[in-house]
């Protein structure tokens, strides 16, 4: 396998080494990492070795960030999260645990910090962490199953594959829609594909001016049901049937004045009932 080389200089030695791509590309750092693990905490030697190792491994973080940044967006933030993972791994480096070489030790830590950053910061709508993790798994599984089935898998098929409930799959699929917010200018409806649809923002409702009455509707319905039948009938005809007092009087066989007195008494009774409940 052909390797790409570039000169590197060890910390304070002035010697030239070689950095290679591939699984063993950073094996030249093993002596420095072993010295770092054995150096006294707070010593100048440890500080210099630490800085040198972090500088040498920074290209690894940069390469991984390009893979994880969605469409190249926010690559600087993803890289910064990866650098945090690198620093943490350098500080806890243990030669006895690094059986897979430097890459086997550092890549999981760098990748984990990048994944955590994307999980916590790349969603447009706040979604519970466990649901985010399930949504990512569902998306990955859907891609694999889709290739096997030759079509998009059903929620029930995803549920069987992941051994979870169908309701959880539905919630996870809904969470995936929250990963990226839609523009309020995005066209919707029959003309969405051609760009002639109604903008999403124009279909969003405004503030309901009667919202403050919602809490009283249940109480009002109970009070109306408690009215005598004649008063309840007159009330419904007047305010729900939009009938005039004279037409109500004719139908009920009473005078218009009597209808007016009954309505006034009924409304006063309803007001008193609401006031008592408040």
UniProtKB/TrEMBL annotation:
SUPFAM superfamilies per UniProt: Sigma2 domain of RNA polymerase sigma factors, Sigma3 and sigma4 domains of RNA polymerase sigma factors
Biased amino acid composition, Low complexity: 1-10
Location of the RNA polymerase sigma-70 region domain: 54-123, 133-194, 224-272
Keyword Secreted attached: no
Official protein name in the record: SigB/SigF/SigG family RNA polymerase sigma factor
Keywords associated with the record: DNA-binding, Sigma factor, Transcription, Transcription regulation
UniProt xrefs under CDD domains: Sigma70_r4
A Pfam family of this chain: Sigma70_r2
Region spans: Disordered: 1-22, 181-210
InterPro entries: RNA_pol_sigma-70_dom, RNA_pol_sigma70, RNA_pol_sigma70_r2, RNA_pol_sigma70_r3, RNA_pol_sigma70_r4, RNA_pol_sigma_r2, RNA_pol_sigma_r3/r4-like, WH-like_DNA-bd_sf
Organism placement in taxonomy: Bacteria, Bacillati, Actinomycetota, Actinomycetes, Pseudonocardiales
